[in-house]
Every structure is written in C-alpha cells, then in structure tokens.
Amino acid sequence: MRSVGFGDGAMAAALRRLTTDTKSDIDRYMTESVTGITRDAGAHLDGDLGPLAGLQADLARFGAWKTNIATAASTAQTMQTALDKLDRSAASYGNLLLLAASTATQAESAATIGEGEYRFEAAISALNTRLGDRSIFAGVRPQGPATASAAEILDRLEQLVSTATSADEVQTLVNDWFSDPAGFEAQAYQGGQALAPVQIGTSDTARLEVTASDPDLRGTLAGLAIAGLLQRGILSGSEVARADLAKRAGEQLIGEQTSRTALAARLGVAEAAIAEAGIEVQAGISATEIARVELIGVDPYETATRLQSAQSQLETLYAVTARLSRLSLVDYLR
C-alpha cells in the first residue's frame, strides 16, 4: 500500500482553494455581466465610497417620494371617484325633487320622495369609502368610518325637527345642524383633522385635505338629509308644506353644485401636482441610476472575457483533479 505524503496533501489543498476561488470569480463575473455593476465597489473605487454613498442616499430619497406619490395618487383618484358619484347623485336627485314639487303626479312625487333616505345613505357610503385599510375621508383617523351611519344621522335630525311646522323651519334646523361645529362635526363626524401635506419632492407636497366634514360638502349633505326626512314622513300633516320642503331640498342640491365643483377642483389641483411630481421623481431616479452605473459600472466585454477565462480555468482544474485522482487510485491499488 502506498502512503500519501505531504506533497500530495498540499497539492490537494491547493487545488481545493484554487477551485473555490475560481468558482467565486465565476459567480462574481456572472452577476456583473447581468447587472452591469461591480460586486466589489470598494475595490472598484479604490476605497473612496463617498460619491457612491451620496448617490445611494439620493436613490433612497427618490424611492420614498415615489412611494408617497403612488399612495397619494391612488388616494386622490379614489376620493375623486367617490365625490363624483356623490355629485352626480345629488344633481340628478335635485332635479327630480323640483319636478316632484311642481309638475309630477302624486304617484311620481311619492316615488321620488321615496328615494330620499336611499340617496342620503349613498352619499354617506361614498364618504365612508375605504382604500385598503384606510377610510380616506376620515383625515388622521383612518382606521374607522368617517361618519356615523345614515340611519343614525337621520334619527338625530328627526328628533331635532320633530316640532317643526313649516318647510322653512325644517330646512333652517337641518342646515344649522350641519354647519354648527356642535352639530354634524361633533355628533356624526367620526374622523380626525385633515391629513398633513405629504412630501413628494424636494419642495413639493400633496395636499389631500378633504374630509367628510368639509364645508363644501355640508350643504349637499343637508339637502339630502332633508329628502331623507321627507321619506320618513316629516310634515306629514300638510302636503303643501311637504311639497315646499321637497322644492327647497331640490333647489339646495342644485345650488350646492358650485361647492361640489370647487371641491373637485381642489382635488384636481392636487392630482395634477402629484402627476407632475411623479414625472420629476422618475427623471431623478433615472439620472441617478445612470450616474451610479458610470461610477461603479463594469465593461461588459471585459467582464465576459474574464468570465470565459475563469470558466476555462475551472474546467482545467477539474481535469487536473480528475487525473490526479486516477493516478492516486492506481498507486493505491499497486
């Protein structure tokens, strides 16, 4: 039997180390050929990592802005959709109420008034719209609904106007309740203060400050609530007074179109700013990525050449190792 000497063991260890190093080189060159970026920035930059750190910080900042922009854009679009639905419903129902109070037959009038509570519920539902796990019209308290339910609000109002005897009195009481800080805002709004502006650029912010208690919404909500009270039978002792109240509710819903349009315009300005910031941030990311590649990028031809050389070296090492193994086996069998 042949004993293995120090030379054989040393050669085997050297081959193992060389094989490991070559495999590591192949892995590195393959990664660099795919990414175009060096895996050893420190060596590539001779230890001067300051410029690279600055670019990485810029990319992190751009990334945070990009996330904020995506969230703000989604929120603004969802808000606009909900408010548009509320606006179209209020405008169309306002016209129906005016017809019901003037030229409609008694059956048509009853059918129109019979939609009042449903229309109010639809408006409240729109203001309680959620995006993911956030109630978007609840300001800084997005976990829960922005408002109490439509039924709860109408219950309060029904009690408030229970002693009213005229359309004017009902309308005044309802409008006052919605405009009074101690009314709708304190008793039915369940959200918080408006959201703070969100940073979406170096000096750009997105202002999504619309809540369910926004002053531009309260007149519309009051008009729809009046219609809901009509369906519940308010002023049931006088058809003349009920017709007058339906007319007033319709006129109010039509008149509040200006406020609803102003609200949509405010959101539109925010959406435009968000879109513009998105373009600027993406341009900043692209420019910074280019600068980063210029700083730590690798030459693709040189990398491919090194990869091919390392692969050839590994094949040679495998061949040498196999040959030495066969020789050792022959010696062992002697």
Short précis:
With 334 residues, the protein is mainly alpha-helical. Helices cover 73% and strands 2% of the residues. The N and C termini lie close together (7 Å).
Keywords:
single chain, 2 domains, 4 strands, two-stranded antiparallel ribbon, f41 fragment of flagellin, N-terminal domain, mainly alpha, disordered N terminus, 12 helices, 334 residues
Layout of SSEs?
Elements: H1 6-35, H2 41-44, H3 50-102, H4 106-113, H5 116-127, E1 130-131, E2 134-135, H6 150-160, H7 167-179, H8 184-187, E3 198-199, E4 205-206, H9 215-231, H10 239-255, H11 257-296, H12 300-333
Helix pairs in contact: 1-12, 3-4, 3-5, 3-10, 3-11, 5-9, 7-9, 7-10, 9-10, 9-11
What does this structure look like?
The strands form two sheets. A two-stranded antiparallel ribbon has the order 1-2. The chain has a two-stranded antiparallel sheet with strand order 3-4. The longest helix has 53 residues. Strand 1 and strand 2 form a beta hairpin. Helix 1 runs antiparallel to helix 12 and helix 7 runs antiparallel to helix 9. It is mostly helical. It has twelve helices and four strands. Helices cover 73% and strands 2% of the residues. The protein has two domains: 65 residues; 232 residues, Up-down Bundle (f41 fragment of flagellin, N-terminal domain). The N terminus is likely disordered. Keywords: Cell projection, Cilium, Flagellum. It comes from Neotabrizicola shimadae. This is Flagellar biosynthesis protein FlgL. It holds the Pfam family Flagellin_C.
